[in-house]
Design brief:
about 290 residues, seven-stranded parallel β-sheet, 13 strands, about 40% helix, globular
Length: about 290
């Protein structure tokens, strides 16, 4: 299948690009930045430039739309940028997919739900995002799903769990904890550390994108989240078990998304997906890779 991947130079985009190439897809990688470590056809472009997106998507049978302002801190500091890339960029993807006749698989987020009204959260739960990041990610999702029913563009949105794996950016909580512990600096936990996340490994997410590409399912959003809840304190303790250092506690982070148990039963029913990578195994691989970097 001829597949265009946006955000291919980013953390998750790199994993998905390599995975789809390994499966035999004819991949074109689209990003503002290029990554020479991946042997693929690169197109350097900007999601907010419609001509650039249309040109890159020409001839594609599917578009895996991962490109976004995915840094929560950056989105909070620059809401206009988040809105432009995450919403307008997704609208441009919808236009390009309509023109090329492509299917779209969109990387959404579990954070679109906001404060939980009940748990576990399923896809019928109301969406009430309250931060520029999750507001604009939901906006991009809705723009694309509108293209499904208005313009017959097949779209499926994956509401991804908090992703982790090798190659994480330095300001991710994983890298912050690991890098500080390796230097012998104290790890500071924001709040009491009991806030939890269903961290979902990149390899499991790659499989979800592959299944979504091959499926006829469309016009829906699916939670794509590992079942295990891990608290930030547990994460810190696992890191310090390998790289001993002091744990300290600071003020809660403003705007932090509340903990919520999210159900992935629906995607198991629709696509046959379940998360397989044990969290401890994925974390060990990440710490191994960081240590190997020197």
């Amino acid at each position: 299948m001829r597949v265009l991947i946006t955000g291919a130079a980013g953390f998750l985009g790199q994993h998905v690009t390599r995975s789809l190439i390994a499966e035999g897809h004819d991949v074109t990688a689209f990003d503002q930045n290029l990554n020479d470590s991946i042997d693929v056809r690169w197109v350097q472009g900007d999601l907010v430039n419609l001509d650039s997106v249309m040109s890159a998507a020409k001839g594609s049978e599917a578009i895996v739309h991962i490109g976004a302002i995915g840094d929560v801190y950056l989105a909070g500091e620059q809401p206009p940028l988040a809105a432009s890339v995450n919403v307008t960029g997704s609208a441009n993807i919808a236009m390009a997919a309509k023109e090329s006749g492509a299917r779209v698989v969109y990387a959404s987020t579990w954070e679109v739900y906001g404060e939980p009204e009940y748990q576990p959260i399923d896809e019928k739960h109301p969406t009430a995002p309250d931060h520029p990041y999750n507001i604009t990610k939901l906006g991009g999702e809705q723009i694309l799903l509108a293209a499904d029913h208005l313009h017959d563009v097949p779209v499926i949105a994956l509401r991804l769990g908090t992703a982790y794996g090798t190659g994480l950016r330095p300001n991710s909580v994983f890298r912050i904890f690991i890098d500080r512990a390796r230097r012998g600096d104290a790890i500071t936990i924001q709040g009491d550390g009991l806030q939890g996340r269903q961290f979902t490994h990149a390899s499991d997410l790659c499989r979800a994108f592959s299944l979504a590409l091959e499926s006829d399912a469309r016009g829906m959003a699916l939670n794509t989240v590992a079942p295990k809840m891990t608290s930030i304190r547990e994460l810190a303790e696992l890191v310090t078990a390998r790289f001993p250092t002091e744990l300290t506690f600071g003020d809660p982070r403003p705007g932090d998304v509340p903990s919520a148990a999210v159900s992935s039963d629906r995607i198991t029913e629709v696509l046959g997906w379940t998360a397989d990578k044990p969290f401890s195994e994925g974390l060990d691989e990440l710490m191994d890779s960081v240590e190997a970097e020197g």
